[in-house]
Amino acid sequence: MPIVEVNNLSVTYKTKTKRVNAVNNVSFAIEERDALGIVGESGSGKSTLAMAILRLLPQHITEVSGEIRFNGTDLLKLTDEKLAKLRWKELAVVFQKSMNSLSPLHKIGAQMSDVMRIHERSLSKRDVKSKIISLLIMVNLPERVYDLYPYELSGGMMQRVAIALSLMHNPKLLLLDEATTALDVVTQGQILEEMVELERKLGITRIMITHDMSVVASSCNKVAVMYAGQILETGLVKDVLANPVHPYTQGLLKSIPSFTGEKRNIRGIPGSLPDLSAPLKGCIYAERCEHAEEVCREMKPVDIILQGNRRVACNLAGGGKYVH
Fold first, then answer.
1. Closest CA to 75 of 45, 54, 51, 50
2. What DSSP character marks residue 17?
3. Angle (CA) 252 163 59, round 5°
4. Please, where are the H alpha helices in 54-184?
5. Is residue 25 left, alpha or beta, with left meaning phi > 0 and alpha meaning psi from -120 to 50?
6. From CA 88, how far away is CA 54, in angstroms rounded?
7. Given this model, what pLDDT does residue 259 score?
8. Most CB within 10 Å of its CB: which of 108, 116, 125, 191?
9. What are the sequence ranges of the domains in the chain?
10. What is the reported pLDDT for 77?
11. DSSP 275
12. Residue 99: count of CB within 10 angstroms of its CB
């Protein structure tokens, strides 16, 4: 059984004048100890999807439907009290720009100790400090960081502190939302390598949300390509990145430079994301797709299952045959 199953998940933001369909009928599953990268340009709904899984979206302006099953339990049906026992202990997250989330007035150790005591009230001060120092060492930080203030740490060190916080209670599922975006390439690479090694040692399942294909290529086993609230292509990283089928996936890969093989021009995808508050008849990507035909504007595609359990939502995929 997959550790996470998302079935027909939809998220709608409500305003006084309109309803924005930020996530639309998204489904995917991830096995225990696996790593899934969810990739797409800004505004594709990736962070909304992550916040929906954690049930951190503001209830008064959002509507969430579908299923989010964690170890067989639908998180959307849990009471707040039961969810609080799962969140951070079994479900943890490293937020985008989380390096800015700590108080600049208090030392790292003091802040981490306060977080630990929320769930581990029976631990002594000595035990808490010992566990925190072991977490810092685990993410390749020196013991002295315990007594430092956030402003005394570099961006990479702060990101490691955020990762240490997320690992504090040995979670089964870890979500990282653009967790390495603000870092330089060298530091980003180091942290990704450390994350993969930590997951292997601790048996963690990871969902990595990013707009950077290179992050997915270097640290994930599977990938889901998201656009305008929908998942357009999923499969193993080695298959999808080497031979992308959906035109949007192809466009994303053409927009990043290649450091090996034949040199080619970098091309952006023309156009912009559609208005997610307006009804759409056909394929969500049709207006930006250079291969679109009339059927793409008239009929919504359904998932086609290709070799290797790859899934592609495209009317022209599968040997060029239309999907009816």
1. 54
2. S
3. 75
4. 80-86, 108-119, 125-138, 155-166
5. left
6. 10
7. 56
8. 108
9. 4-90+173-267, 101-168
10. 94
11. -
12. 22
Residue 315 sits at the vertex; the CA angle it makes with 313 and 320, to the nearest 5 degrees, is: 115
Q: Is 320 left (phi over 0), alpha (psi -120 to 50) or beta?
A: left
Q: Which two tokens stand for residue 250?
A: 């192809």
- The per-residue pLDDT for 18 is 92
Assigned CATH for 4-90+173-267: 3.40.50.300
Query: Residue 44: which of 193, 172, 233 has the closest Cα?
Result: 233
Check if the beta carbon of residue 239 is closer than 8 Å to that of residue 253: no
H/E segment holding residue 224: strand 222-227
Give residue-wise pLDDT tens across range 218-271: 899 999 999 999 999 999 999 999 899 999 999 998 887 765 666 667 778 888
Least confident range of 21-30, 161-170, 194-203, 223-232: 194-203
211: Cβ contacts below 8 Å, ≥ 6 apart: 39, 40, 41, 42, 46, 178, 181
Torsions phi, psi of 284, nearest 5?
A: -65, -25
In whole angstroms, give the CA distance from residue 3 to residue 173: 8
